[in-house]
Amino acid sequence: MATADHPAIRIQGLRKRYGTGETAVDALKGVDMTVGHGEVVGLIGPSGSGKSTLLKCLGAVIEPTGGRMEIAGEAVYDEGWRIDDLRALRRDRIGFIFQAPYLISFLDVTDNVALLPMLAGVGNAQARSRARELLAALDVAHRASAQVSQLSGGEQQRVAIARALANRPPVILADEPTAPLDSVRALTVVRILNDMAVQFQAAIIVVTHDEKIIPTFRRIYHIRDGRTHEEAGEGRAP
Amino acid sequence: MINLAGRDILHGWGKFAFTGIGLGLLIGVTLSMAGIYRGMVEDATVLIEGSGADLWIVQQGTLGPYAEPSSLRDDVDRSIAGLPGVAQTGNVAYLTMQASHGGTESRVMLVGFERGRPGEPAFLVAGRPVSRSHYEAVADEKAGFRVGERVRIRRHEYEVVGLTRRMVSASGDPMVFVPLKDAQEVQFLKDNDALVNERARTAANPSFNRPGVPGLLEAVQASQAQSRQVNSVLVRVAEGADPEDVAAGIRRWKRLQAYTKAQMDEILVAKLIATSSRQIGMFLVILSVVSAAIVAFIIYTLTVNKVREIAVLKLIGATNATIGGMILQQALGLGVIGFVVGRFVAGLWAPVFPKYVLLLPGDALRGFALVMAICSLASVVAIRAALRVDPAEAIGG
Ligand SMILES: Nc1ncnc2c1ncn2[C@@H]1O[C@H](COP(=O)(O)OP(=O)(O)O)[C@@H](O)[C@H]1O
Ligand SMILES: [Mg+2]
Fold first, then answer.
1. What is the pLDDT of residues B15-36, one digit of tens each?
2. Whole-number Å distance between alpha carbons of B378 and A127
3. CATH tag, A9-232
4. Is residue B256 part of a domain?
5. Which residues of B touch A96 (CB under 8 A)?
6. Domain containing B282: what range?
7. Regions of chain A with pLDDT less than 70
8. What is the phi-psi region of residue B382: left when phi exceeds 0, alpha when psi lies from -120 to 50, beta otherwise?
9. For the ranges A192-196, B186-190, B214-218, which has the lowest average pLDDT?
10. Per-residue pLDDT at B227 exceeds 60
């Protein structure tokens, strides 16, 4: 795939309308966004502005009504057309990090991470060794065979980040990843995301309200009433 | 790929073990019910085989001697013995009654038989056969008697001289074999007052009490005091004779009903056990429904408690087949635990049942297939719920 020549993700004129006729809601009215490999951007906006809708379109769980989206140069949506297998796209090309870690409680730490390559058809042994590498990169290698319930909240969040990276996706979507954390922990998570973006050459889009971390972004997309406005951030080191 | 169902079961093994054991007890009861039915059929077969007879001669128009009362004079056997194809005959009397020993009462089937003839106990597991012509008994070991013990039946005490095995009536009562004369006496035994009254009435009747015929009154009174009736005549047919032909001859010439082994088997299984088997069938249906409800409920609950995890699994690319398969395997896993526990407890408590419980491997196999089918069916609701989970739910609104 032409990773170097294309941005990790590019959307142009993305629109989403919920419902039809009188009661239709235009949640996205033409969103443009381009994020390069290794870049972390913030996505902020007031409640009801369309953040969740955009995240769901980017995450390929709802289909936009119009506009274009491509991941690493490959079209995903194009004015009503879409690629066949959105499920495989989510598995292979997009990583997800949520407000809570949402780990699979009945799998141990390694298998929570290894599950993704396994779902993509990688053999168990190889998937687990990849998982252990990622856990080491996130400083939780020592918890590799622990049960999820034995981890602290911070450790769980690191495992969740390792999981998002497991299939080396070009795009990672983070939905309020620091909301429940105090400022030290929140900044730690942002530092990890920045490191990982560089290390794995992924584009990370962070949806957030969190005043503590907003100054860390170099670029911020403001979304208001279904439209985005790009703005330079302070880019302070977390 | 790892087995998600197996991991979830191991993770929540307490829940699964608890539910599996509960389900297992139900399955155990179900297997035992089937075993009781098989035991009844087996008892009937042993009853027929153990009698040593090829034909049962009973009162015309009856399904005797086990399924209906039948009464014959005890001298018809002599005329049957003379028929072609008949090797040996034996009079038998069957009476269900209470026996008491050591202060406890138990229900037994008293069998009056003639020594050395069809109808005597097939084999002994302890003691010796009846050798005196009165007041000795051979009992089925299920009666709980011991050799040498004295058992009271009505007015008389019997000495238990031998024990036999697997000789029970069609309703499961252990058999107690006594000489035919004793059984006849018990069956028609009048109490002392009735006896005195009847003697007086006979003595007052001038046609019996004739001064010119000495001994007549005594003979009449003696005949009144004893019974000349039996319930059935068992026939062993001669080598080479067709039991069906011999039976046809007896029916034609003696105005009696004659049943072959196959017919007797049909009477016992199709007529006598039929009601019980329908009853057991009902129980099997109810237990199946209850098991299905339990499995459905627990699997549904486990699934609903995992909605968030299922949404995450779908979001990260798990297929519907993976998720549906996980739930189906959990239901089947529960069924396997339940079946293993059920088969184990059924074997454990079978000897404690008062009735013979025969656990056939074929029934266990059918039971296993049924459990798997029920579990698959029960998982449908949970699978539907899981497939409706939207991966978007993992992303906050
Ligand atoms: N499933 C839906 N059906 C109809 N309208 C919706 C739905 N989801 C969101 N909306 C509407 O779309 C707009 C944007 O919502 P949302 O994307 O959730 O914004 P945010 O996450 O920024 O609060 C809101 O007006 C909301 O009411
Ligand atoms: Mg929202």
1. 889 999 999 999 999 999 999 8
2. 34
3. 3.40.50.300
4. no
5. 312, 315-316, 394-395
6. 4-44+275-394
7. 1-4
8. alpha
9. B186-190
10. yes
